[in-house]
Design brief:
The complex is a heterodimer of chains A (417) and B (210).
Chain A (H helix, E strand, L loop, with lengths): L22 H4 L4 H13 L13 E4 L9 E5 L2 H7 L4 H9 L3 E4 L6 H13 L5 E4 L3 E6 L2 H23 L16 H15 L7 E5 L2 H7 L4 H5 L6 H7 L4 E2 L8 H22 L14 E4 L3 E6 L2 H23 L8 H8 L2 H8 L12 E4 L4 H13 L3 E5 L4 H13 L6
Parallel strand pairs in A: 3-4, 7-8, 10-11
Antiparallel strand pairs in A: 1-2, 2-5, 4-5, 6-9, 8-9
Chain B lengths: L1 E5 L5 H15 L4 E4 L14 H27 L7 E8 L6 H21 L4 E8 L12 H10 L5 H10 L8 H12 L10 E4 L10
Parallel strand pairs in B: 2-3, 3-4, 4-5
Classes of the chains: A alpha/beta (417), B alpha/beta (210).
Chain lengths: 417, 210
């Protein structure tokens, strides 16, 4: 690994959320509509909810373990960072001075609900509870107060973490500089990897060199933290627990890449064998989802482009979590068996089994030259209905862009099945 | 998901940049549709060397360069069911001399690439069409007037009627019809087919494959 450059840029800060509540809108809504309004406000705010993968919940309580009218449960990065650090309990106390309680990790389910009920009954002054390794749950007497309370708690966490992160680099500082040729390296590497990822269905890739990805992969702590894996179920259900980290000096060595993929699959199979239970679903595809390369960024693979991009975004969330958690202590990964029990939860499997049948060209990548003309555009549209992702080109100027816009309008900007 | 790029298919550097974009955006390539082309029509004594070269540049060199750029990506997919190249041809290369000669060379290139690609799991097939007027850029301007002039009719509705009447099945051939054949040859439905031509031309005797 190339370690001649040490870059001491300050860590990228967390974004601070602000309340988007609008009384003029809220005044027109019924209680049920207010709940929807509140859930949508939080769910559409990227500083509160993971894009495309979050399971923020807002509840109007009738029968629930908690005796409050309005309850929110969120997992924004800053909150999971607090929840997933060795310094979690101390930081919770430091930020909120006892207004927010703290419970150790417990897999989401009925038992956690009962624990919460008893804990809150014993501590009636609480305004919320930090759930270690998981997220936060909080409540208030009105929809507006609950929404604003939630946003304020996240802002409190963000401000606390940003103060801890200020003026020093994240992850022990940079040891690998951003490679100026990273776009070309990604273009060369992705087909090599895709060709090696044999599975039931072809995969599509998504490369990102966003600042967070480069900050993490190029850092001193990268190798230590990457193997620990992502800790939030929201994240690892999309990314697998561990990424595959590659040596940037050996990216053109097909033998090295083949060995890395083979090793990853063997490690994943080992994890499955160690953790499986008598009624566990069969092992799923063992290929890595996230491939990380110092100086180049993050490449994620999935059976369609949208899922690949979402997996990348969620790995970005996981990186934010590690960044914040390390700022206040040590990042704590989820216990392997706990992670397995979530990944191979029977209800999760049932959800996967209910996914619609895939269309014939899912996972295929097609390139159509002359794509702006009648035949090229029709071929592109025909494939799109059956699920292929595809770039297409032609020799004229402007036409390709026009047809591209038309296809997007007809089929939606990000629908790739 | 669709990405578009502007690229001159006769320029190997622009093509490489376009294929690099495909690799970076999606990870690789399973299906190539070589479709970018032109048409021209002129009696031989009025055919300039420039027009001759233009046809061969786009249809022969263009298809060659496009396939060559796709090849290293496609050979990587052998273990995963292989890859498919679909070349768009015209009238089986039997029509106006200059354009058809280039088309014939392109069709032959496809068959030879089918030979060479088989051991890498790459299938190469041709869709031969005729008289696809709707949406086609080649029918605008001079070509439409040239063809109308060659048949002694006007370049509007009459030309479309002329081609429909000339076809054996008496039907219009639409871009969507070509897309069905391209889809078939690109997908695993045709996994055991290579070196073939499918005519989508409403029946055109001169275009019968042989």
């Amino acid at each position: 690994m190339n370690a001649q450059t040490l870059i001491c840029a300050a860590a990228l800060p967390f974004a601070v959320p602000t309340s988007r509540w609008d009384d003029s809108v809220a005044a027109t809504l019924s209680p049920a509509e207010l709940l929807l309004y509140r859930a949508n406000l939080l769910g559409s705010d990227l500083t509160v909810t993971n894009f495309g993968g979050g399971n923020t919940s807002a509840k109007l309580v009738e029968v629930d373990p908690l005796p409050f009218a309005h309850v929110n449960h969120v997992h924004p990065d800053a909150i999971i960072a607090l929840a997933g650090s060795s310094g979690s309990e101390a930081a919770t106390q430091a930020i909120w001075g006892g207004r927010i309680g703290w419970l150790p990790w417990k897999r989401p389910g009925y038992t956690l609900g009962v624990m919460l009920r008893d804990y809150v009954a014993a501590n009636p002054h609480l305004e919320g509870v930090m759930l270690a390794g998981h997220g936060i749950i909080c409540w208030a007497d009105s929809a507006r107060a609950c929404c604003e309370h939630t946003v304020q708690l996240i802002a409190d966490a963000v401000n606390y973490l940003n103060a801890k992160l200020a003026d020093k680099p994240a992850f022990g500082g940079r040891v690998v500089a951003d490679n100026p040729d990273r776009a070309a390296i990604a273009a060369d590497l992705m087909p090599r990897l895709r060709g090696l990822m044999t599975s039931a269905r072809n995969k599509l890739g998504h490369w990102s060199d966003d600042p967070e990805a480069l900050e993490f992969t190029g850092s001193a702590d990268f190798a230590r933290l990457a193997v620990l894996g992502t800790s939030c179920p929201d994240h690892f259900l999309r990314t697998k627990i561990a990424p595959l980290a590659l040596d940037p000096a050996r990216l053109r060595d097909d033998g090295y890449l083949a060995q890395q993929i083979a090793d990853y699959r063997a490690i994943y199979a080992g994890y499955y064998e160690r953790c499986k239970r008598s009624n566990s679903p069969a092992m799923r595809d063992a290929n890595p989802v996230a491939v990380l390369v110092p100086g180049v960024g993050r490449i994620t693979f999935a059976t369609d482009k949208t899922t690949a991009r979402l997996a990348g975004d969620l790995y970005g969330n996981a990186v934010n979590v590690m960044c914040g958690a390390e700022a206040i202590g040590e990042y704590i990964a989820l216990d392997e068996q706990e992670a397995f029990d979530i990944e191979y939860w029977l209800l999760e499997e049932a959800k996967l089994q209910r996914m619609p049948a895939t269309k014939p060209l899912v996972g295929k990548i097609a390139l159509v030259t002359g794509g702006a003309g009648g035949i090229g555009a029709a071929s592109a549209a025909r494939r799109r209905l059956r699920g292929a992702g595809r770039p297409r080109w032609r020799s004229g100027r402007g036409c390709a862009r026009r047809v591209y816009q038309a296809v997007r309008q007809r089929h939606g900007p990000r629908r790739c099945v | 998901m669709v990405r578009a790029a502007v690229c001159d298919v006769t320029d190997e550097h622009q093509l490489q940049a376009a294929f690099d974009l495909a690799s970076r955006e999606f990870g690789e390539l399973d299906i190539l549709v070589a479709n970018a082309g032109i048409a021209s029509s002129a009696p031989i004594e009025e055919t300039t060397l420039e027009l001759w070269n233009r046809n061969f540049d786009l249809l022969v060199q263009g298809y060659f360069l496009t396939a060559r750029a796709a090849w290293p990506l496609m050979t990587r997919m052998k273990e995963q069911g292989g890859a498919s190249v679909v070349c768009i041809g015209l009238k089986n290369g039997v029509a106006a001399a200059t354009n058809a000669s280039a088309r014939a060379a392109a069709n032959h290139l496809a068959r030879c690439l089918a030979l060479e690609g088989a051991r890498h799991g790459i299938r190469v097939n041709v869709v031969n069409l005729d008289a696809v007027i709707k949406g086609s850029k080649i029918w605008y301007g001079d070509w439409r007037k040239e063809r109308a002039g060659a048949h002694g009719i006007d370049s509007g509705k009459e030309l479309e009627e002329h081609y429909r009447a000339r076809s054996m099945l008496k039907r219009d051939v639409l871009p969507e019809d070509i897309a069905e054949a391209v889809y078939f040859l690109g997908s695993d439905m045709s996994a055991k087919s290579t070196g073939n031509m499918i005519n989508v031309d409403a029946g055109y005797v001169q275009g019968f494959t042989r």
